[in-house]
Design a protein that fits this description.
148 residues, alpha+beta, Rossmann fold, two-stranded antiparallel ribbon
Length: 148
């Protein structure tokens, strides 16, 4: 994770300047030489498993959200993704999940939910939480337009 770069790029976007966001190559386990151009927008979403960990990053956010997903759902999603998109074997995905991913999630990622303004249990299937979030974002956009 390059939190310093992420913070720098968010500040650039907030100042109305475009940024070139690097991409990660999951097959090579390293940052790719490719980047994509992100133009400034009225609303943008910063997502990632550790985005709530660093206070400097949290301070740049209007709304902080933690999507709380069951361990079983997480492993099923990981198995499907890693086998279909990354060409990994079932055994390697399970070994990595049980040996590294799950313990690290509970040690480092789950504790960051205390920094969230909103914790959404059950992810996208929680339509009430999604509706509340949509309403809040619409209100922020309206306030931004009225202040211009």
């Amino acid at each position: 994770f390059d939190t310093d770069l992420m913070i720098e790029q968010i500040k650039e976007l907030l100042a109305g300047r475009p940024v070139d966001i690097p991409t990660y190559d999951y097959t090579e386990h390293t940052r790719s030489s490719k980047a994509y151009r992100q133009e400034p927008q009225d609303v943008f979403i910063v997502e990632g498993i550790l985005v709530l960990e660093d206070k400097r990053l949290r301070d740049l956010m209007d709304i902080k959200i933690f999507v709380d997903t069951d361990d079983d759902v997480r492993i099923i999603r990981r198995i499907k993704r890693d086998m279909e998109e990354r060409g990994r074997s079932l055994d390697s995905v399970i070994d990595q999940y049980l040996g590294v991913v799950k313990p690290m999630y509970h040690q480092f990622i789950e504790p960051t939910k205390r920094y969230a303004d909103i914790v959404i249990p059950e992810g996208v299937s929680n339509t009430v939480a999604i509706d509340l979030l949509t309403t809040k974002i619409a209100k922020i956009l309206e306030e931004a337009r009225n202040s211009k």
